[in-house]
Amino acid sequence: MREILGRRLQRLRDRFQSLRPDPGRSGGTSALLDAALVCATTWQWPVLPGVGRSATDGSRCACPEPDCAVPGAHPFDPGLLAATTDPRMVAWWWTNRPTAPVLMATGGPAPCAVSLPAGAAARALVRLDAQGMRLGPVVATPTRWSLMVAPYSLERLGELLYAKDHVPSSLRFHGEGGYLLLPPSAASTGGQVRWEREPRADRRPSGARGAGDLWLPEVEAVVDALVEASSGAPGGGSRLAY
Known about the structure:
Layout: H1 2-19, H2 27-41, E1 47-49, H3 87-96, E2 102-105, E3 112-117, H4 118-130, E4 138-140, E5 144-149, H5 154-162, E6 172-174, E7 179-182, E8 194-197, E9 210-211, E10 214-215, H6 219-229
Antiparallel strand pairs: 1-2, 2-7, 3-5, 3-6, 4-5, 4-8, 9-10
């Protein structure tokens, strides 16, 4: 099955490569299309192109908001509900918008995520590895890292957070109705998004949930571990330090 998907992906790449108006386009452009197709077809993650940067001022977002908080790295047109796993639609998008960031719509059948500041995340991963905790893919930008987790509902997340005495205020949750910026997109703060831990096909333990053949930890395990890892942070553990 994976070989068949691989052949279909290659045919799509060849087809849309021939449609590109500029054959001298950089390899990074092709990498965005390839990444979007892999996410949509191999992992069955619904993706869509981010709004990108302004054509006249590369430091500004292409959206109408003059003070956009995440320039270039959010949905706009199409909106988040357009996210799809259809390889034809994905290839059409990135053929017409070759530098667009790759966004994954989180929740539903797709992974969710928990993100935290990069420095705290690097320290937390060291500690979690030492504890023997099994993690899934980790997406890294220059300022924040995101740990992918199994899909969860907003109700389940609310119950989890309500039961905690405290939750680090620097944690962010990417669940139903959210999105995650994926490699090799340009980060909104500059630099490039990369995989700190790449997604890998794996057999999931009985009862575990995930996307495709990808094993993902439960959100409870990740939040519990990050709260514990924050106990030595400045401020008595109420925050994860930047």
